[in-house]
Amino acid sequence: MVDSLKAEILGAIGATTDPAALEEVRVAALGKKGRVTALMKDLGGLDPEARKARGAALNVLKDEIAAALNQRKAELQGAALAARLESERLDVTLPARPETEGRIHPITQTIDEITAIFADMGFTVAEGPDVEGDFYNFTALNIPPEHPARQMHDTFYLPDAPDGAKRVLRTHTSPVQIRTMLANKPPIRIIAPGRTYRSDYDMTHTPMFHQVEALVIDEATHMGHLKGAIIEFCRAFFDVDDLPVRFRPSFFPFTEPSAEVDIGCSRKGGELKLGNYGDWLEIMGCGMVHPKVLANCGIDPAKYQGYAFGMGIERIAMLKYGIPDLRTFFEADLRWLKHYGFLPLDMPSLAQGLAR
Q1: CA dihedral sign of residues 291, 295, 297, 298
Q2: Would you state the pLDDT for residue 41?
Q3: Taking the mean position of all CA atoms in its chain, how far away is CA 282?
Q4: What is the pTM of this model?
Q5: Is residue 46 classed as helix, strand or coil in its secondary structure?
Q6: Residue 259's closest CA among 272, 273, 245, 270?
Q7: I need a surface site. Which of 143, 157, 340, 344 has the fewest CB within 10 A?
């Protein structure tokens, strides 16, 4: 009886052609009212020896049926996946569809807008490697060995260089400033946009993000020039002529004095609007370059001084274009890019206007 039931059920499993039919066979065999379950319930009416033998046989049957069900389920899933892949196949050698239109990523567009504004102020663009030495990323910037920024939970450390020097994925674009000061004599007037890396991930932080920093070094620069450049940038970038900008005292190891920069906004009704509305939003840090940083780069701090500031590119892009979640910048969603992206010929300039 057990052998014939086994053959019948295994035959039914093998004949199924879809998951729904397979589930029906499983319920009919092993469900609460299934045929194998009914036989298990009848064991109580047998004598001990017969119950023991019949129970062992039924347990083996249940295991064999369960194994056959799992195997057939995997076969059906594999067949369904193969059919789907076959139906969704694309011939990548075909010409692009006429309705397909490339878009410029908001980060690229924002970098172009920043570059256009600062180019009008006389800044040039400087670049540096993503993999940096400890000296450029920390030591030359007056960041002491015990500073929290050096800790493993914030910084991605890489294997040491062949000469034993420590290497990291740069945590800011400030190393570009160090490299520029080491390679050039003042006057210096640069911006340094690029990727940076920190160990963090949520709606407002990602392990990889973008920053832009500015550096000016000469004999006559003072805090007033710093404030003027930042105010001019903020009002041009956000296209708000009377945008309030305030500076709050702060601390950074590489600048002295240092300040946080806030711009005017409103949060009424849960909506963020930039302008002269009485509230404030922090967007960047800045300050006068610390004399020790100048000295570390071979520049005489008694003769030269300068200013520096930096901001997150994704952050100001989110503020300008109403993008709510930082993580979406890196999810490669074509629908998102079609919504927030820019036309290839929409090149920003102060003469023709920045994108809005």
Answers
A1: positive
A2: 79
A3: 21
A4: 0.69
A5: coil
A6: 245
A7: 344
Beta bridge partners of 210: 195
Q: Which tokens go with 70?
A: 């799992």
Closest CA relative to residue 170, chosen from 139, 144, 131:
131
Whether pLDDT at 356 is above 60: no
Identity of the residue numbered 99: E
Closest CA to 337 of 150, 104, 18, 55: 104
Alpha helices in 126-167 (DSSP H): 134-137
Contacts of 242 (CB under 8 A, 6+ apart): 235, 275, 276
Residue 281, token pair as written in the block: 């939003």
Tokens of 191: 């911006």
Q: What is the pLDDT of residues 262-290, one digit of tens each?
A: 999 999 988 899 999 999 999 999 999 99
Per-residue pLDDT, averaged over 21-35, amounts to 86
- Asked whether 321 and 329 are in contact (CB, 8 A), the reply is no
Order across the sheet with 167-169: list the strands. 131-133, 167-169, 157-158
The pLDDT score that the predictor gives to residue 13 is 87
Q: Which CATH class is domain 106-340?
A: alpha beta
Query: How far is it, in rounded angstroms, from Cα 118 to Cα 210?
Result: 17
